[in-house]
Structure formats: C-alpha cells, structure tokens
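Think of the structure tokens as a kind of shorthand, similar to the way a musician reads notation: each symbol stands for something richer, in this case the local conformation of the backbone. In the example below we present two proteins back to back. Begin with the first one, reading the sequence and then the tokens, and try to describe in your own words what changes along the chain.
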Amino acid sequence: QVRVVESGGGLVQAGGSLRLSCAASGRTETTYAMGWYRRAPGKDREFVAQINWSGGATFYRDSVKGRFTISSDNAKNMVYLQMTNLKPEDTAVYYCASAPQSRTFDYWGQGTQVTVSS
C-alpha cells in the first residue's frame, strides 16, 4: 500500500502561480510513476501530468503544456506541480496519484482545492 497526501492548493488570481506538493509513503519502492489529476465542478476527473520514477520522463495534457511543470524528489518520495499563468478554467480539486509496477494509478490522495479568480 502507498499513502499519498497533497498540499499547496489555494485561491489565486488569473495569471498567478501555485505549487502543489505530494508526499508518498509506504511501499514506495514499487513506484513506477506519480501523477496529477484534477476534477472541475460538474466535470469528470482528467489527467494533468505524470512523471516516471525511473528516468524522469514527463507527460502533460495539452492545455497545461508550457504553464505547468511536474518534478520529483525521489529520495524524499515527493512530487511537485508548479503551475504558472493560471486560468479560471484551471479551477478544480487536484489529486496526486501513485502508480506501482502495474502502471495504473492505484493510490490516490484526498485532493487539494485550486481556485483561480478572473
């Protein structure tokens, strides 16, 4: 089992920045990747970004490319999401998730609210 806890959400004006943090604990030695997802009001949860634990390859949804950066500190089992030039449509609950060697995101945090005002 892996426990995942997010932090760093909040209220920011459009054009502003926020950094989300995610701490993983437990059986982290089996981690294949960590990722961020989000769920906006009335919408389905959607993929935001992923970082592979070995090699550090990163992946982003098109709408955040160039604005969001995912990074990790493997020694501390931490993953971060630096969000810049935030837009009102980025408003959502952001979830951190961990994928073990099965390569599916099996472990999820409780989420942290990000609200971008116009």
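Once you have a description of the first chain, move to the second and do the same.
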Amino acid sequence: QVQLVESGGGLVQAGGSLRLSCAATRSISSFDVMGWYRQTPENERELVATITSAGSTNYADSVKGRFTISRDSAKNTMYLQMNSLKPEDTAVYYCNGRLVVNTEGAYVTLWGQGTLVTISS
C-alpha cells in the first residue's frame, strides 16, 4: 500500500523557517501532481502549493514569495521550504499526491497524516 509520510513540523518564532518533508513509499514519478495543504480548527483545508511531475508549481497568494515547493525523485520525497513564517501560518500541514494507477490516467488521491506547524509571535 502506497503511503505518504510527513515530517519536519514544529514550533518556531515568527520570521523563522521550517522545511517540511513528504516521503512516499514508492517512486514519486508515479504521482502526476503533489502538493501541500493546511488546516486549522476554524477553517477548511486549504491549498498551500502544488508541483507537477514536470516541475510546474502553483502557490496560494498568502505564501507566494515565502514558501517553495520542490520534489526529489531520487529520494522519493517532496519538500516545502517555509521562510518568513507568520503566526497565521500555524496549522496542520498535509501532504497530498495524485497517484496515476493505469495508462488511461485513472488515479487515486493520497494524503499523509499531517504535521503540526506552530508559529509564535
């Protein structure tokens, strides 16, 4: 069974940095799109950033210029580098991947278990 496992969350002060990792239990070349989402108790899960297998990226307006998404096929891992962190970035961050399962393009969507990021003011 394919799994996505996040790591790297923690507590940092505003202005600091964190790097989140999402390790897949199989080759990430099988995922045509991967991304990071976040959720707080008060809000629905929201998109943070996505990256395609071709390397195209997309960011939420709230994180543009501060966060960078990347993927390392050799390590089967996706990353989210978060700089200039703000208290409003506090959330549980989830890794997401769209796993292509056949040549017709059918896919399944996988989620990691989440990692908590807390930014103190």
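Compare your description with these statements about the second chain. The chain has a mean pLDDT of 96.
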